[in-house]
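Practice record 12: protein with farnesyl diphosphate.
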Amino acid sequence: MLDKTSGLVIPEHVGIIMDGNGRWAKKRGLPRSIGHKFGAQNFRKVTRYISKTGVKVLTLYAFSTENWKRPMEEVSALMALFKQYLVDLLTDFRDDEIKVVIIGDKSGFDKKLRDLIEESEYVSKDRQGMLLNVAMNYGSRDEILKSVQAIARDVRDNKLDPDNISFADIESHLYTAGLPDPDLIIRTGGELRLSNFLLYQSAYSEFYSTDTLWPDFDDKAFDQAIIEYNRRNRRFGGV
Ligand code: FPP
């Protein structure tokens, strides 16, 4: 188990792009939805492990604003998993004091899922452990657009001078307002892209990609990412 006592720097905020469920299932001759089922089980296991390492904020990419383009059957299977897991999370993450927040455009979901989201956020709101952001119907361009719209409304209402718009104004309208930027972004499944995940916030994040498919990503694979993170020389544009 990796934590502060291992002498390694533990990143404060970690983002994970959980990719590869479909390929994991295909390799076994199973439907993609079964890959998501195993992916969801792994989401629970990995989250609990990470919460014990000292990471303060974990942001997991579960469903993007573009994922609606997938076949209806796959989207429905994912929505059913979200419902099932949100119910489980109400009790499941209690012992680990994990606080759950859903980031993304919740208006895209049906009423049952919206209610469950509200309930899980309410039930976990006073927990003191790791903050888990689950990005659902999340797209970074959509998030930035919403921030621009909010700022434009403030300018129209004479609450803000355009010449004084600051980074803080932009950031205050992002879903991650008040949180540190991600130090490390992990992508499973081998692709080397951000796929519309935390575009603004990841300006100086360290990017780590592994070929391991999400359902196979475990404690050891996470430790490996932390070891690699500790080899990086973060300069934030300086020397
Ligand atoms: C990407 O794999 C994965 C997704 C689009 C869904 C991620 C969702 C989960 C891991 C479910 C768990 C989440 C919760 C909150 C219960 P892919 O389908 O793109 O895989 P491929 O690249 O192999 O096709």
